[in-house]
Amino acid sequence: MAEKEIKSVDQATIEMLEKAASDGVNTAFDRAETMKPCPIGSVGSCCSNCGQGPCRVPLARGKEETPEEKKKRRGICGATAETIAARNFIRMIAGGAAAHSDHGRGVAELFLAVAKGEAPGYEIKDEQKLLALALEWGVEIGDRTNNEIAIDIGEKALAEFGRQEGELLFLRRAPLKRQELWRREGVAPRGIDREVVEIMHRTHAGVDQDYQNLLKQGVRTSLADGWGGSMIATELQDILFGTPAPVLSQVNLGVLKQDEVNIIIHGHEPLLSEMIVAAAQDPEMIEMAKSKGAKGINLAGICCTANEILMRHGVPLAGNFLQQELALVTGAVDAMVVDVQCIMESLPDIAQCYHTKIITTSPKAKIKGALHIEFDEHKAMEGAKEVVRTAIENFPKRGSNVRIPQEKHDLIAGFSHETINYLLGGLFRASYRPLNDNIINGRIRGVAGVVGCNNARVKHNEGHIAMVKELIKNDVLVLQTGCSAMASAMAGLMVPEAAKYAGEGLASVCETVGIPPVLHLGACVDNSRILMAATAVVKDGGLGDDISELPVAGAAPEWMSEKAISIGQYFVASGVFTVFGVTWPTTGSKEVTDFLFKDMEEIYGGMWAFEPDPIKAAHLMIDHIDKKRKALGIDKARERVLYDMEMRRELEAV
Ligand code: XCC
Ligand code: SF4
Question: Which ligand is closest to the CA of 103, given by its number?
Answer without folding.
Answer: 1
